[in-house]
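re: that chain from earlier
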Amino acid sequence: MKKATFGAGCFWKTEAAFRQVKGIKSTSVGYMGGHFPNPSYLDVLARITGHAEVVHIEYDPEKISYKELLEVFWQIHDPTSLNRQGADRGEQYRSVIFYHSPAQEKIARKSKQQLQISGKYDKAIVTEIKPASAYYLADEYHQQYLAKQRKLKIRSHQSPDINYQLANT
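^ sequence. v structure.
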């Protein structure tokens, strides 16, 4: 297995997008790129840590390449938006690629350059490309958050008998 780490706005949405990609073995959400050890969600939200919200991925390079992961990354957010994705604002929502090897760095830089010259965006791509640093896992509450919310929503619209069957399978 190999690792990849991306920041593309809210980590809930980023993780949900990557969890649908074949070849990804696991995902988790957390924080990287800051100067404050072991930050909490509230620390990061307060913008005192310098961390980005990230999704940390373990993937099988025999099934999906790093270049293909980058293609997903570029598609799921606006890489021209500085410290913001949609309504979410702050440096924790910045567009950033944290590479885990010199090969990943080279692929990421080439991918960014190709996207910039493609003409897809009128503005400059502001995505940072940095070496991976300490990764701090977010609380369990944040892990697979959107998937958990969908399950709750589905269960709330079903009969009690179906809820019991789902809870005990």
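The beta strands are 2-8, 24-32, 52-59, 84-85, 88-89, 95-99, 128-131, 136-137.
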